[in-house]
Specification:
heterodimer, A: about 100 residues, Alpha-Beta Plaits, B: about 300 residues, alpha/beta, 9 strands
Chain lengths: ~100, ~300
């Protein structure tokens, strides 16, 4: 799934002739790495994870993937809203300060 | 790490919404779109008028959705969807679902006549209104979906909104369309089930989805789901279905009705309210809730007048 996302690139038209005749979508927005909007980052403690999938279900950015039956956060796109940490029934997601 | 268990998910794993979209942190409308597309699948066409989603989707050559999207004018969501459906049927495609996806401004105020027209013709479309209770995209102006007492930029604290919210579901029920449902982003399984049910019905189907907006409601982004859940638990936004404008089905009946203060105090837009106004809101909610309970009684249980 992650490999599919990497392929998206920004499309640049050099002249009007290169543009399509009808306005239509040519590519995905996945080139836009929204992880840069983040001030706090979620960290999952997998030892206490109940594997309920609630964090995956309530992520507005689809930035939580499921790999090998466990949730994994895609930090390229996570905007740091904190919904997953708030809704986790085991409270195993903590929001930590982002260090750049 | 503990021994591996299989993960049981309540929703399908397929995603038709890509990350990288331009929504604010903790947006309720993106969650609504994600669940609806999970239920409808790949063979779907969306008609989006001017609303938050026309921005979230992305600028011109890009789109964050994996289904075709048609951006139309503000007042023509339902009319455009009717046209797309008619065109597809002329081309011999009878399977594709056409969805008009409008915000509360495009449904309650500006798009109401087009919606009423489509409902009267009983065009074979699904109309989804995601309700964030103001014109959030253009900067939090008051709409007729804004509840009593709320702050917006056009109804400032000194002159807060004095009128109650318009009852759009009752307006649509008066059109006697085959299916109407209200849904909330805090109950995705319920929303998914209703959308699956609506997909197999022919005729105009109307959805009213409650989608909290952290930037407009001045709430914390992590409270989005909590607010949507409290709205159901306080009976401020009950979840129910209406078939043919007559048969009411209540989906979730809270065991214990919570006071509305719990819901109001989480939002900055209600900070100025005094106890007197909160009591007024509570009375209004109680009245609406009893009215709904009365309507949900089955015909044989109804007292003969």
């Amino acid at each position: 799934m992650k490999e599919k996302r990497r392929k998206a690139q920004k499309i640049i038209f050099n002249s009007e002739k290169e543009m399509p005749i009808a306005p239509m979508s040519l590519g995905s927005m996945t080139f836009n790495l929204t992880g840069a909007w983040r001030n706090i980052r979620p960290v999952i403690d997998l030892d206490n994870c109940l594997q309920c999938g609630i964090c995956w279900k309530f992520c507005p950015d689809t930035a939580i993937l499921i790999e090998n039956e466990y949730p994994v956060i895609d930090y390229d796109y996570c905007k740091g809203c904190g919904l997953c940490a708030e809704e986790c029934p085991a409270k195993c997601i903590t929001m930590e300060e982002e260090i750049r | 790490m503990k021994k591996p268990r299989t993960m049981k998910l309540s929703l399908p794993l397929e995603e038709y919404m890509n990350p990288g979209h331009l929504a604010c942190q903790g947006c309720g409308a993106t969650l609504a779109m994600r669940y609806v597309l999970k239920a409808l699948g790949q063979r779907t066409v969306l008609c989006i008028p001017a609303c938050c989603w026309s921005v979230i989707d992305g600028p011109f050559p890009y789109s964050s959705l994996d289904v075709p999207v048609f951006h139309c004018a503000f007042e023509t969501a339902a009319a455009s969807a009717s046209g797309v459906k008619a065109g597809l049927e002329m081309a011999g495609d009878k399977e594709t679902t056409v969805v008009a996806w409008a915000g509360d401004g495009g449904t309650f105020d500006i798009g109401l006549q087009a919606l009423s027209g489509a409902a009267e013709r009983n065009d074979n479309i699904i109309y989804v209104c995601y309700d964030n209770e103001a014109y959030m995209n253009t900067g939090i102006q008051r709409s007729s979906a804004t509840p009593y007492g709320a702050w917006t930029t056009t109804t400032p604290v000194k002159h807060f909104k004095d009128q109650p919210k318009k009852d759009i579901v009752a307006i649509m029920a008066a059109h006697r369309i085959p299916y109407i449902a209200t849904a909330s982003v805090a109950y995705p399984e319920d929303l998914f089930k209703k959308m699956k049910k609506a997909k197999d019905i022919k005729g105009t189907r109307f959805f009213h989805i409650f989608a909290p907006c952290p930037s407009g409601w001045k709430s914390r982004p992590e409270d989005t789901i909590k607010l949507a859940r409290l709205a159901v638990q306080t009976c401020y936004f009950p979840l129910y279905e209406i078939e043919w404008g007559e048969k009411y089905i209540l989906n979730i009946k809270p065991r214990e009705k919570k006071p509305i203060v719990d819901y109001l105090r989480l939002q900055g837009r209600f900070n100025h309210l005094t106890e007197k106004e909160i009591n007024l809101i509570q009375e209004e909610i109680d009245r609406n809730w009893h009215r709904l309970l009365r309507l949900c009684l089955q015909p044989e249980e109804k007292p003969t007048a």
